[in-house]
Amino acid sequence: MSNEAILHGHSEVDTSHDAHHDEHGAHHHKETFITKYVFSQDHKMICKQFIITGMIWAILGGLMSVLFRLQLGYPDSTFPILEDIFGKWAKGGKIQPEFYYALVTMHGTVLVFFVLTGGLSGTFANFLIPLQIGARDMASPFLNMLSYWFFFLASVVILCSLFLQTGPASGGWTVYPPLSALGDANEGSKAGMDYWITGMALFVVSSLLGGLNYISTILNMRTKGMSMTRLPLTIWALFFTAVLGVLSFPVLLSGLILLLFDRHAGTSFYLSDIFIASTNKALPSEGGNAILFQHLFWFLGHPEVYIIILPAMGLVSEVMSVNSRKPVFGYMAMVGSIFAITVLAFLVWAHHMFVTGLNPFLGSVFVLLTLLIAVPSAIKVFNWITTLWKGNIRFTPAMLFAIGFVSLFISGGLTGIFLGNSTLDIHLHDTYFVIAHFHIVMGVSAFFGMFCGVYHWFPKMYGRYLNNTMGYIHFWVTLIGAYLIFWPMHYEGLAGMPRRYLDYSGWASFNQFGDLNKFISTVAMIVFSVQLMFVFNFFYSIFKGRKVTTQNPWGATTLEWTTPIRPGHGNWPGEIPEVHRWAYDYGKDGREFILQTEPVGSSESKH
Amino acid sequence: MSQAVPAGQKWWSGGKSPYNVEYGKLMMWFFLMSDAFTFGAFLISYGSIRFASNSWPDPNHVFRNFPIIGEMNIPLAFVSLMTFILIMSSVTMVLAVTAGHNNDRKGVIKWMIWTIIGGLAFLSCQAWEWTNLYSEGAWWGKIATDAGSHFLNADRTVPTTNFSNFFFTITGFHGFHVFSGVIINIIMLIKAWRGDFDKRGHYLMIEKAGLYWHFVDLVWVFVFTCFYLL
């Protein structure tokens, strides 16, 4: 694009695009349907592509969980309709073991990568970065477009894998070898696993292209006066999210390439001394190490959970400050905590591997580093609570989801301290306690962060509001439902109930949980149906929602609310505004809020 | 870039790029960091598996052939030549970038051609070496274990296939990077030839291609050390 024209050797690199581009807001280029809606290079359209693809995945991923919750809640019942739909996978109306494992695997893969990474970062990084830092678009709109289309291709590959005769990958979303390396060991490790690896490799490319763009846009394209410490916290969070992605996804790629060779080239990177019962064959593989894969996987896998939660934290900080009509408490502490979390994210991966035979001394190092994460997390939590303290709170749906996020993050975070201790982990590892922990702390709470962002910025995206009544129903049912689903799982886990099992009726000790499982499954279905209501609300409101009539409906201070109600490509007609103050001047000198673009007055009080 | 920063200049206050780096170069640097992690993961995996193996083939014995001369037993001579070629191509790349700084189109074209030749020569050497090792019984999942094999461990015991597994995977991945680099350099050459950069007024693209090329060279130094020297 036009910022190619930036010259080498000037004393200052001007980050505003050239004059031609500055006219964008005023008059549009002739755009065809293809360039406007399909191969669009406008960050706002790419954001919409990401969120809608993410929503489709969220529905599919959620539906998978409803299916396996049917099995877990009602192991003795049959549902003939399932056989009509899924054929041999649900023979006799009962979910077959292979189907069950495929469902849990794909549920994890889809939700972790395609919804909460692609759908969350992709949506809000694309939407908010140029709008909040004051840029016409991303540094490279073309690479940005490619980032979405690689995401789309990855989605297509994974979607295709669902329809394979041997089924999709089914060795768990962590795809540990040897199970994932040997087609003879598991139906899902036949073609399904190759599709999974291909899909994930495409996903890594998408995330890399996106991440490089986000980083260089934030560093290079800030408008005049927008110093790093005047950035809204959303941008800080998205910045470190991108750094995490750029540095951790390549390691997963390496691990998957080695896995691919183990599957097809007869290598033994992860394989050693294996006898397969189904074919009655001993494999020649020798000298490999399955634990090596776990190291490579979790070197990505742990930063990945922060890639999921950091954007949610950023969105929540912003929405909470706007709707408390108060500056966010401890801005620099918030930035520092995000940074600390980013650094620690790379140093804790082996806490997923305490029971692999890890050296106990090494384990204790990872316990220490893991527990250190509680410090920045607690700083953030206290800052959110103190932001609310004595605030003039407006309980919009976005604000409710932000508060709900904090509640869930505390509940899920505390159980993280249990699991981070290697001794406790021996008992809790691979039980429902783990499921409860990570679903609350990074699953549901990241969803709450995303919902809070969608409800808050929907008016900017589409120029209309989401329906509030449906928003409130959505919030309360989801919040209460999430606790009802996952809170009881802590007890099941403490009692030793292992995760990933098809049927627990064979264990007398877990029979006491039969009714509880039924209850969890019922609530899960109710919560899922409420998400469908949200999806309806989303699409209905795009076309029929209440129209936004003012430029700055929430009374916020940040730059995106200085653009027209429906900004064109280029965001601002005419000049990009200059920034004179930080993003959180609420309730200052008796004024409700002061836009970032307003110069600091001579009589204004200091912060 | 090494511009003198005027006193009192506020680089981070927005409206300009901190340290005056154009966005594409910033992206390239972050991409290289990302790619360093890819190679890092490969080499650390290699290290951990090799460390856990009882014994390992002796590189002085494995890499002792030279094309045409054949069975001469001159350890590491051929790989030294390969390394020399690749490093020389880095030198010519530096000269191309310098010519670009001076907006010297002819100089850029000349040195880009030399860089491309260096890259192709390196790839050809690698092709020969792979063929040679293949003919001696090494491939993914295979390693010759008979008494006359060149791959026997230093203590003459039977070697692990992980030697060839890692060798072909990692040098292959590096070779793929060199190949991509050659393609990028050819595109840059064509663009320089057509005068695209003169129209644009600067040769920044050559500089970015140069960053990538030097990175690929640097990675080779590590790959070379791990497989041939240790």
From the 3D structure, determine the CATH topology of chain B.
Answer: Four Helix Bundle (Hemerythrin (Met), subunit A)
CATH architectural type of the largest domain in chain A: Up-down Bundle
Radius of gyration of chain A, whole Å: 25 Å
What CATH calls the topology of the largest domain in chain A is Cytochrome C Oxidase, Chain A
- Which structural class do the helices and strands of chain A define? mainly alpha
DSSP E strands of chain A, number: 4
List keywords for this structure.
heterodimer, A: about 600 residues, mainly alpha, Cytochrome C Oxidase, Chain A, 3 domains, two-stranded antiparallel sheet, two-stranded antiparallel ribbon, 17 helices, about 60% helix, globular, disordered N terminus, B: about 230 residues, Four Helix Bundle (Hemerythrin (Met), subunit A), 7 helices, elongated
